[in-house]
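subagent[fold] <- orchestrator: predict structure for attached chain, return tokens only, no commentary.
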Amino acid sequence: MVSSPHEAMHRIFQHDTHLFSRVSKVLGCDLPVPDSVTILPTDLTETGPVERRVDTLLRFDSVEHGDFLLAIEAQGNKNLTKPASWAYYTAYLWSKYRLPTALMVVVQDHATAAWAQQSVASGPPQLPTLTIRPLVAGPHNMPMITDPTEAAEDLVLATLAAITHAGDPAIGDILKTLSTALKQEREDTVAPIIELITQGLGKRPAKELWRNLVAVDLSFYKSDLAEELRDEGREKGREEGREEGLGQGRVEGSVNTYVRVILATLERRGIDVSADVRERIAECSDLELLHEWFLRAATATSAAEIFGDE
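subagent[fold] -> orchestrator:
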């Protein structure tokens, strides 16, 4: 089943069809800006029983530099069968549209990036015939944007960067940067950004933090998705309030969110959490302090380190 991060990693190029031109500069290939970009059908099904679908397909038109196709694939992990599928996509598209065809793969972890950017040939070493070497965008080469001014200069690029760094220890700072930058934007700009980031984070612990940022930093913004995120946060707060006697307010819900995310981050990194540490985190009601502990939890070598000098 297709995951929400998978959808976010390629749909963002449909949201802003000129995004690839800016990403190409970040990745070092610096392709010329096209005159126009067209979103093409992604169904590559033949008349036979074989069905193939590329994630996103764009056509770039340029009188000066020539036209080409770009197939974009979102890849969650290593899959040894994928290079053959990618070879099929590019060969079929090249044959169908009679245009040069490029492939970009968007990933969220270093291991998948290292695997995806390897050259794979369809033939034996003596006769490679068709070689697949996609351009790969991921945490290894996308910028880590933690300056709100820089994020505001290109919100969509900053959003893609955040999605590719979804598993990075600095994701808390990255998300806070985006929520700060979005405060100054129009509602029609904020809506797709909130949706793409929510999808891109998937089930990672950072989604809890993003839910909290939407509820607090972007409390002015109204949309079905934003309200859904806030409702989930409030409901979690009410549930935990009933179970732990911590109340039902928004602040309490936010505190509980941070407590859960900090503990989940430590446990996911394999760090032992003593009863005393767990109690100290659970009893803290200072949101700023909890946020600082969350950031430290991503790099600490022991649970006690998150407290610093407090």
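orchestrator: received. Logging for downstream: DSSP finds 13 helices and seven strands in the chain. The two ends are 45 Å apart (CA to CA).
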